[in-house]
Amino acid sequence: MDTTVDLDTFSSLVERPDDSARRAAEERWQAPGRPRGGLGQLEELGSWLASVQGRCPVRPLSAPKVLLFAGDHGVASLNVSGLPAVGGTAARVRAVLEGTAPVAVLARRFGARVRVVDVAVDADPADFPDEVVAHRVRRGSGRIDVEDALSAEEAVQAFRAGMAVADEEADAGTDLVVLGDLGVGSTTVAAVLIGALCGTDAAAVTGRGSGIDDKVWMVKCAAIRDSLRRARPVLGDQLALLAATGGADFAAITGFLLQAAVRKLPVVLDGVVSAACALVAQRIAFRAPEWWRAGQSTGEPAQAKAYDRLTLTPLQEQKITMGEGVGALMALPLLQAAADTLAEPQAVPVRPEEPKAQPKLPSAAELLDRA
Fold it and tell me: How far from each other are the two terminal CA atoms of the chain, in whole angstroms?
């Protein structure tokens, strides 16, 4: 197995979306008889879809996929989450696979398939189907406030696993990925990465995550503070940063985002975890964010800082904080509507005919007089 990744190649491999297709879409929106900007956000989304598809009219979104990377984090043992540190992630994975989790219910409603990629769940791999654990790197990740999450070799392995998943989805014909995550303690890890890359202190990026109270928030803030001290010395090396204070799922998502951009596969980001990975990926390939859209705002302060740095504007203000791609999935109907509207052939507006004069009918009084 290759234990290296040449990150510098991504800057040349990631191209910009097609500007000519975007311009064609913008002209198409200005059809005769339509008010300028009358379809609001649908117009911007349709033009973006034209650019990432490299064509106008666009193709309707016929094969969207919800992609969930799952992993456990040692920092969860500090009880920084309202969810159980032991078994919590595995239980959520099972709920998705059984079709009872909210993301599974909504995906059926919106016509999207769901795929779970177990990169580092702290559970026996025999508990899940082979296709779920095919890219498993390790069982859980290290406690990042006192130790590295991964070894350097594991970080590369996870990063390459994410790249492989992007290739699998592109080869399978997936035309849009709704990106989510499953992992207890993951918002703590995300806050560390965003805080380190944005140069902020712990309090500025510590959010409520799974709905924690003030006491737990203080524990979480302290863990982020200690982890930031470990992150800052390796800021110049993104893989080293992911190994020190990230996790196998974070490394995999980062690799996925970059390779998806190389393969021209558009992605909708969900919560603070995908935002953190997007921020790391931007440091590797500055054009990559043009292939992504921010599905929603969760209200997490770290997410807001990441999107500001990425110059991404959330499509919705759902404030869905549960992860598993639910918030991003709620933006799928908007994108489907934009694609369908822009894909329809333009019709030449026809002046409506004047209504023909109808013979005057006698009133009830006139009928009575005649009788």
Answer: 102
Helical (H) or strand (E) element with 274 = helix 272-284
| Number of alpha carbons in the 13 Å side-chain half-sphere of residue 92 | 27
Helix, strand, coil percentages in the chain from 3-state DSSP, rounded to 5: 50, 10, 40
Calpha distance 29→185 (Å, rounded): 44
pLDDT at 304 over 80: yes
Q: Would you call 347 exposed, middle or buried from its count of C-beta atoms within 10 A (0-12, 13-18, 19+)? A: exposed
Q: Domain spanning 60-343 has what CATH number?
A: 3.40.50.10210
- Residues 315-358: pLDDT tens digits? 998 888 888 899 999 999 999 999 998 887 654 344 444 545 55
Give which of 116, 347, 143, 344 is closest to 252, Cα–Cα: 116
What is the distance between the alpha carbons of residues 145 and 228, in angstroms, rounded to a whole number? 8
The answer to whether residues 294 and 314 touch, using CB atoms and an 8 Å cutoff, is: yes
pLDDT confidence of residue 3? 66
DSSP state of 200: -
Q: How far is CA 267 from the centre of its chain?
A: 6
- For residue 149, which of 216, 76, 69 has the smallest C-alpha distance? 76
Least Cα distance to 52 among 304, 306, 338 occurs for 338
Other CB atoms within a 10 A radius of the CB of residue 58 amount to 26
Marked catalytic residue, from 154, 169, 290, 324? 324
Residue 33 pLDDT > 70, yes or no? no
Q: How far apart are CA 223 and CA 144, in angstroms?
A: 8
In three-state secondary structure terms, 63 is coil
Angle between helices 272-284 and 248-262 (to 10 degrees): 60
**Domain locations in the chain as residue ranges:** 60-343
What are the tokens at 227?
A: 């982890």
How much is the mean pLDDT over the chain? Answer: 89
Catalytic annotation present for 324: yes
List Cβ neighbours of 190 (8 Å cut-off, separation of 6 or more). 250, 271, 272, 273, 275, 276, 302, 303
Render pLDDT for 184-234 as a digit per residue (tens, 0 to 9).
989 999 999 999 999 999 889 988 876 778 888 898 989 999 999 999 999
C-beta separation of 165 from 117 below 8 A: yes
Number of other residues whose CB lies within 10 A of the CB of residue 322: 20
